[in-house]
Amino acid sequence: MFNQNSTIGDMLKNPVGNDVITTITEQVGIPKAFIYNPLSKSLQLSHLMSMAKGAIDDTFIDMLCDKMNQYDGIQLSESSHMKKTWWKEAVAYQIYPRSFKDSNGDGVGDLGGIIEKLDYLQDLGINLLWLSPIYDSPNDDNGYDIRDYYQIMSEFGTMEQFDQLLDQAHSRGIKLIMDLVINHTSDEHEWFEAAKEDESSPYHKYYMWKKGVEGTYPNNWVSFFSGPAWNYYPNIESYALHLFSKKQMDLNWEHEPMRQDLYKMIRFWLDKGIDGFRLDVINFISKEDGLPQGSDLVCSIMGQCGAEHYFFGPKLHTYLHEMNQETFSKYDVVTVGETPGIGVQLSEMLTHEDRQELDMIFNFEHLEQIGKSRKDDYRYDANHLKNVFIKWQTKYNQQCWNSVFYDNHDNPRMLTKIDPTGRYRSYAAKMLAMLQMTLKGTPFIYQGQELGLVNGVFETLDDYRDVESINLYHELKEKGEEEDAIMKTLFASTRDHARIPIPWNQEAGNGFTSGEPWIKAQIKDTSITAESETADDRSVYHFYRKLIELRKEDMDLVYGDFEAVHEKRKNYFGYYRHGDSSTYFIDMNLSEESIRAYEPSHQYDLLMSNYPTESTMLRPYECRMFKVER
Ligand code: NOJ
User: Fold this and answer.
1) Ligand 1 cavity residues, CB under 6 Å
2) 280 noted as active-site residue
3) DSSP assignment letter at 523
4) Fewest C-beta atoms under 10 Å: which of 2, 178, 365, 580?
5) Whole-prediction pTM value?
């Protein structure tokens, strides 16, 4: 059992301890060798407390020990035999329906639009679609605030259209997964409507309530979308928890009838024949008993007071396993958990095939550099991408599976992070494509990535639609920050970059809509469209298409072993994928300076490259893919 006398060495053997130490040392820049030396390993937690001179207190250490104790003695089996399944072999594509294609001229993308573009998706070669939420919602957070899990949002269409979409996708060999938002519902969900009226309502216990303390909030927890994480309901003199917007009310997973209602809903969709789910912020569903005050240390390091009480709550595994047994395990489906803020070892606890919880996760470590957050305006260094990928490719248990992604509806484009000026747009986009399609893990392409889309142009506050950005604006304004600085933060961080409608062509409305688009912003270079990209053989689109084809054809690219070369060489990323019948070698320049290439051996054939001519050097963002059959 962990206590204040436990040592760093003990911690390193525990998944929570290992992830915490890895995260802290990486953030602070302490070399690994320092932590793994015998002297450091013999340090006790109590020594750390005195060394930290009060910054780490008893409560924090006790909380950490509790969390580590949950995993004490759990050993994950490790074998080199990897089970083969369709979802490991799939190439996935995320659609943010609001911004994909509008079919009825109301300026909002919809199901009809997705149906129209199924041929486009089939031509691209993807075979798994993830739809961001399409359920009935008041759209405070664009559908991540669900009012009715059994209805389609009227702006998006009807249930008949959904059935048609599913059918038509399946007939093209494309599987479809839905977004499952079950950490919270909209405050307009009928459960919450009843819950807030009356404490004796059977639905009251479906949510997380707490009484105020001395006339104010029950604790110091804050919302991800600015301000305290609590709404007050005077009629029942209680506060309800919302980790996200004021209209996204956290569900109480402790309450079994609530869980059963969710499982029933999940089975409803699975019975329709969908192929699985992406589970929204799923590592937040279990909260610490009594919802205690957040530690000052976490508040100051993360700015997210209270997070330690729900990031990986005490019953997370119990709930996930139960949900798996009651629902997913009865169908041939895939589950992908969105799990912000967790490291390799805790992810293994969620995805190891013996544990029957989730199939894979989205981890976000590669999206921001160490010590930075999305809200910082900084120049991203692609070497970080390489370091994180190498870590996950080599350390992750072989009986766990992962996803590989860069973009989604919550982040600015990776392409712009890597090449902010846009000078090397198509080279960098192709390099990212080759990297994504040749790593181990199911690739998830986010809409527009295949066109090499970049961040958009946002000038005034009016251009933004994202509830997070708008709340952030007001929060910073209240804190007295300068307008210019606020607008910089908004521009760096806004999720709207990825929510700009897909430019299908250069006609009015960009072929996205015949009406007024729900969001005005566009990318600067309006000549980049699906029409222009599909018409040009040398485009980013065709590069993706070819890579997708290669990945689907050769299982060695899916299951082959990963081996990096010259790991320490700055700006260089080279690796093998050793499969049953062939080996691939990827040679890549992560920067805009030319660097020396690493030729694996003359027997290797060059399959693809993003430059038309040969060179002994790797030019800016050059990537090459070689193959040798054995
Ligand atoms: C993660 C989703 O991806 C994001 O868009 C949403 O705002 C939050 N979860 C809350 O549901």
Assistant:
1) 141, 144, 181, 244, 280-281, 338, 409-410
2) yes
3) B
4) 580
5) 0.96
